[in-house]
């Protein structure tokens, strides 16, 4: 029986073979450069996908919240890293989690460091997050006062252990010169390693963005990489140049509820609550909330003419359809939509249907 027979409402499909190819390719790249791959599981948020990752030598993972860390804590990972400036209101929850799981966090100021020093009874590792140009969060790379204040405070505790420095070069998503950004990242992490490794000989450096990890081939002496989106990829990554469309591992199956042949539009049950509202701009200035693919028993195939979701509301999506798509589609069909941002679409949908008709878990699912 085809997986398509199980679908009557918006459903996020996952192609396991594509997902595995993405995991294998990034794992080989990390090995080539002598780096450890510690993927960010905020994209898939799935224990089943975690099992696939283990087959490619992955033993540690990254998450974005303590809630997500708790979800994965029973799966015997060597370490779970929470890649978000730690929320001090969760210090007691962190300590409870650390009693059963090796865990690490990110620190960006001495105030939270002091709270953890006073709260933790179980060992927790920490990275100092560095801002080397992105501007979202982290300690400025030249702010040695803050870096050393964190390190001094951590020394007061036997349970808070310094692991190294972390940079998320998120501006690779919107700045074109990725090699320049990575040169800045390499120089920043190399400088910090040289400055502090006499006192902390085991410190490591880690970077964590998918565009750079996918496109660059010179990581200097950076020790670890922690990209996340690469496991699925999406239209944003394809536009950046991180992947090809054939590397996108998820597609939203959307029921067709109306067709307007005169306007060349198709109404589908797929809106902001399914896709999120991330958007790309078309060359003519119109908005693109997802690209249309045709579904079949083996997965999905690409159209020869471009069709895309041009507008969405909460539950509705309106497709700007090519002549080819209008001709091939009827009310009651299912169309596939490649997401603009797969992490957000997966978080909206909270589960996956594989192409062999099996449901795949998601941390936020029931």
From TrEMBL:
SUPFAM superfamilies: PLP-binding barrel. Its EC number is 5.1.1.1. Residues 249-356 form the D-serine dehydratase-like domain. Keywords: Isomerase, Lyase. It holds the Pfam family Ala_racemase_N. GO terms for molecular function: alanine racemase activity. Belongs to the DSD1 family. This is Alanine racemase.
């Amino acid at each position: 029986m085809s997986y398509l027979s199980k679908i009557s409402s918006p459903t996020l499909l996952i192609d396991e073979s594509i997902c595995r190819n993405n995991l294998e390719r990034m794992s080989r790249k990390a090995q080539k450069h002598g780096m450890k791959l510690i993927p960010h599981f905020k994209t898939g948020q799935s224990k089943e996908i975690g099992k696939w990752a283990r087959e490619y030598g992955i033993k540690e993972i990254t998450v974005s919240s303590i809630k997500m860390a708790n979800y994965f804590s029973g799966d015997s990972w060597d370490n779970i890293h929470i890649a978000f400036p730690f929320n001090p209101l969760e210090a007691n929850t962190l300590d409870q989690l650390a009693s059963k799981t090796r865990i690490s966090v990110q620190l960006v100021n001495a105030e939270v460091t002091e709270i953890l020093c006073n709260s933790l009874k179980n060992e927790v590792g920490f990275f100092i997050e560095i801002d080397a140009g992105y501007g979202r969060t982290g300690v400025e790379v030249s702010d040695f006062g803050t870096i050393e204040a964190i390190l001094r405070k951590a020394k007061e505790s036997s349970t808070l252990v310094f692991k190294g420095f972390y940079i998320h070069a998120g501006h690779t998503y919107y700045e074109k010169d990725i090699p320049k950004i990575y040169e800045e990242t390499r120089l920043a992490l190399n400088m910090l390693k040289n400055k502090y490794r006499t006192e902390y000989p085991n410190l490591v450096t880690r970077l964590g963005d998918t565009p750079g990890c996918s496109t660059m081939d010179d990581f200097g002496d950076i020790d670890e990489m922690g990209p996340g989106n690469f496991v699925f990829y999406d239209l944003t990554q394809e536009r950046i140049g991180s992947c090809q469309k054939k590397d996108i591992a998820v597609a939203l199956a959307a029921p067709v509820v109306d067709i307007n042949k005169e306007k060349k539009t198709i109404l589908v049950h797929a809106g902001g609550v399914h896709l999120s509202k991330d958007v790309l701009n078309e060359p003519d200035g119109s908005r693109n909330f997802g690209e249309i693919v045709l579904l079949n028993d083996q997965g999905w195939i690409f159209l020869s003419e471009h069709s895309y979701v041009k507008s969405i509301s909460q539950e509705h999506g309106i497709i700007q359809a090519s002549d080819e798509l209008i001709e091939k589609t009827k009310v009651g069909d299912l169309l596939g939509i490649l997401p603009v941002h797969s992490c957000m679409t997966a978080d909206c949908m909270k589960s996956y249907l594989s192409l062999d008709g099996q449901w795949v878990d998601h941390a936020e699912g029931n």
